[in-house]
Sequence to fold (345 residues):
Amino acid sequence: MSAAGSGGGRIRAYLQFIAAVCYFFLAQSLARRGAQGLAGQAWAPLVEQAMLVFLLLLGYATMGFWMDRQSSPVSAQGLPRREGWLREAGVGMSVGWAIALVCVIPLVVIGGIAIVLNLQASAWGWLIADVAFFALMALAEEIAFRGYGFQRFAVAVGPIGASLGYAAFYAILRAMLPGASRASVAVAVIFNLVLSMAYVRTRALWVSWGINFGWKASQALVFGLAVSGVNSHSPVVQGDPMGPFWLTGGGFGLDGTWVPFFIFLAAMPVVYRLTRELDYKYNAPVIVPGGMPVDLDAIARKQHEAAMGSTEPAAPSLVQILPVAGPPPVRPVEEPAQNQANGTE
Fold:
């Protein structure tokens, strides 16, 4: 491709990235307004995330089909139903849960967590709803920050540039939350870089979605801690962390401390290692044949014959060993003896 053509493709991809970002804010606004009109206060967060996932999938699939002629625009966003996709999601959830556990251990050792359990049947029902909330919220973030917009931005600036750009974009949105700090912004940056690396190496959102879901759901539903300043997600487990602010993050939660920043930084080579086979499987360059078909054996044979002469064996000739026998002589037919006697008489 010529330089001009390549530059034109990058400009077009950059404009598509801008359109994807604008549509994200539009879908977010529509989902919030729709949830407020369709559901009560208790169900509004879950309905909002469900509507946001639907709007993002629909909008980005339309962009991919219309602008890029994608035959399977939903799969192209990073959601292919390929073999082993559940295992990929499970690996991601294991990593997210492990990171949350490692961050909680020093909190328990140094300060402690006062946990209150609510084992009523209604609490378990709301727990299922909260699991669905975090699953949808993580999916919406993955589609928005590593889906169609990220892919078009990667065409314009490369995967590393897209990862850094979307990490900054995610951190800016997190900085607008009440109680945000420098530590929360730094955690948002490194958290987004880990998720982007998981997507780039697997070409799917399953691993990154699992890490996102495992990290946030473990904090809220397993340990009862606040997530980004919200402490009302778990109806079964309510945790009250005790200790210094630099360790607990106060009302903002672990995302407001520097502990997850270093844990996610240490987790990057682990995620890189875990996605090695997927990277080899889905990022290996595909060799596409081009040009005219060439028979190298025939060319080599012609060159050899031109230099050494034809090597094909000559057709076998007939060799005469004995003289050719002629046809047998014709013997005269003798008349019967009776005829000879009649003639004599």
Notes: The radius of gyration is 39 Å. The chain has 13 helices and two strands.
